[in-house]
Write a structure and sequence with these properties.
alpha+beta, four-stranded antiparallel sheet, five-stranded mixed sheet, 314 residues
């Protein structure tokens, strides 16, 4: 793969888009591209064929590839001439340049095409190679887009299911949190016993809850009640309200972290998931200095769905 040193103006010719006031727009299927993407449609195009457009004023740095006729607005720059290069490859190539950093306006963010044309770049001129690279990247883009669509459909399905089961949940049997789980607060370890050299026992702090990984250890030994096991639900008691089912290594529970563990052996495997699902709709009951605080004593007020009725929420 050979790279050539060129100026951007030798690779493409950028041009300012065209004005199209809303009162002059006619209903149609031609996308109107602004600095933030497709914002409207029109009955006729200003440009035909493949296009690459970026914001000239307002939103800078976003690039849009159009596979068909389009109308680039005057707030954009579009590629007037690809000079024999693959349009799709040019789209991906321009993305690598972070062109928003060449902002030429002081008060209002803006890009000057003459400034962009003078950017020195390393470029692959071989057209078959351009097309191969563009094809690979395009396939990944398609995969991402399909996955995002699937996620959106699943989220919508979850919302519909949630609405359907609300009535059942409302009338389902509930039990107090203390009937369902053992609640254990973390131990106040001595700071001088902490280390990140792997000496002693791993300790689990609030910041470790999201990643389920800990780099901190303590040489101080404490009672077995402070052990954290896989499947326990850990909750940060203040500041960052992290909550997660712990699947990391076994370790000690540190002050300001709370552990909830199922009392019933038959549901220990799903205890964390069940509790987490219900706690996400709860809010810390008190505040100190505007920081949310979980207070163990107030948890006696909370009731949860009896795990015997988990079929109602699964």
């Amino acid at each position: 793969m050979n790279f050539e040193k060129k100026y951007l103006g030798e690779i493409v010719n950028l041009k300012r888009g065209y004005d199209l006031p809303s009162q002059h727009r006619k209903q149609g299927i031609v996308p109107i591209i602004s600095s933030s993407g497709i914002t409207d449609y029109h009955s006729e195009p200003a440009k035909t064929g493949e296009g690459v457009v970026t914001g000239r004023y307002g939103t800078l740095g976003q690039l849009f590839y159009i596979n068909g006729d389009y109308w680039p607005l005057n707030t954009t720059l579009y590629v007037q001439d690809f000079k024999g290069n693959s349009p799709k490859f040019i789209y991906y190539f321009l993305k690598t340049l972070s062109i928003e950093k060449f902002n030429a306006a002081s008060a209002v963010p803006g890009l000057d095409r003459n400034v962009l044309h003078k950017i020195a770049v390393n470029f692959i001129s071989h057209l078959p190679t351009q097309r191969k690279i563009a094809s690979i990247l395009s396939a990944y883009d398609d995969l991402i887009e399909n996955n995002l669509k699937r996620i959106k459909l699943l989220e919508e399905k979850a919302r519909l299911i949630y609405k359907l089961i609300q009535k059942d949940i409302l009338h389902a049997e509930k039990i107090n949190l203390y009937e369902f789980a053992y609640i254990q607060m973390g131990f106040a370890f001595k700071a001088e016993a902490f280390n990140e050299n792997g000496e002693g026992i791993p300790i689990i702090r609030i910041r470790d809850i999201p990643s389920q990984k800990t780099k901190s250890y303590t040489t101080q030994e404490v009672d077995n009640q402070y052990w954290v096991e896989k499947g326990d639900l850990l909750i940060g008691m203040d500041g960052e309200f992290h909550m997660n089912e712990w699947l990391g290594q076994r370790g000690y529970l540190v002050q300001r972290v709370c552990r909830l563990r199922a009392k019933m052996n038959s549901i220990k495997v799903i205890c964390g998931k069940h509790l987490k699902r219900q706690f996400t709709i709860m809010k810390p009951p008190s505040q100190v200095l505007l920081l949310p605080i979980w207070v163990k004593s107030t948890w006696k007020k909370y009731s949860l769905l009896n795990p015997k009725n988990l079929s109602k929420v699964n």
